[in-house]
Write a structure and sequence with these properties.
single chain, ABC transporter involved in vitamin B12 uptake, BtuC, mainly alpha
Length: 249
């Protein structure tokens, strides 16, 4: 999206995935194997479908600004739907949903983690294969076009691919914010903007940061446990302000 402050949640994909998972929790789909992750995955797919339906209403409408604006609207709609479910569920389901929405790494089973790991590895390999095109797109769309990048195919493919990766993560761990802002920017400052290096380092350091945040969340108020999203938000919010100041916004 060529927006330094845009993270994976800006298009509403995580909210769509979260809404699908909440529907699964409320409907009792959690009693079925992969019930909640599959519904969360479907929620993300529906979000991507809506993005393309709305943005594709006119030829050439799939621009960065169009996607960002549509994402804000979709995110607001799904957030309202999530609040609706929070207002009608009982106290037990409310606690479960609230904890999940703030990030929870303890609920996924080993079999679910195995399926997710396979999907993420395949997704990362496919995404890494687009590293050269990503480097060109960052330089500007006109430059990318002149150097042979088919933007009409490449941008939708990248959007779908990253959306599916996000949906897999959110379906198991809930919404864990700010990692998509903190880690890539730190890696870009350290290693530069070459996606052939930026993608693997962001993946490795992002995973390491999440493990560290989860460890802090588990021990800081022992025997109670905080949602991991609380820790990432406490770290990410000041960093977001730093980015705003750095970009002069």
């Amino acid at each position: 999206l060529r927006n330094p402050l845009a993270d994976p949640y800006i298009l509403g994909i995580s909210s769509g995935s979260a809404l699908g998972a909440i529907i699964g929790i409320v409907s009792g789909a959690g009693s079925f194997y992969l019930g909640i992750p599959l519904l969360a995955f479907c929620g993300a797919l529906i979000t991507v479908f809506l993005l393309f339906i709305v943005a594709g209403g006119a030829k050439g409408a799939l621009t960065d600004n169009t996607l960002l604006l549509i994402g804000v609207v979709i995110n607001a709609f799904f957030s309202a739907a999530i609040l609706f479910f929070l207002s009608i569920v009982d106290s037990l389901e409310l606690h479960s949903i609230t904890f999940w929405l703030m990030g929870d790494l303890s609920r996924a089973s080993l079999s679910e983690i195995g399926v997710a790991a396979f999907c993420l590895i395949v997704g990362f390999i496919l995404l890494y294969g687009q590293a050269r095109k990503l480097n060109l797109i960052v330089q500007g769309e006109e430059t990318a076009l002149h150097l042979g990048v088919d933007l009409e195919r490449t941008k939708p493919w990248l959007l779908v691919l990253t959306s599916l990766i996000i949906s897999v993560v959110v379906s198991l761990a809930g919404i864990i914010g700010f990692i998509g802002i903190i880690v890539p920017h730190m890696m870009r400052l350290i290693f530069g903007s070459d996606h052939r290096l930026l993608l693997p380092t962001s993946a490795l350091f992002g995973a390491s940061f999440l493990v560290l945040a989860d460890t802090v969340a588990r021990v800081i108020l022992t025997p109670a446990e905080l949602p991991v999203g609380v820790i990432t938000a406490l770290c990410g919010a000041p960093y977001f302000v730093f980015l705003l100041k750095r970009k002069g916004l």
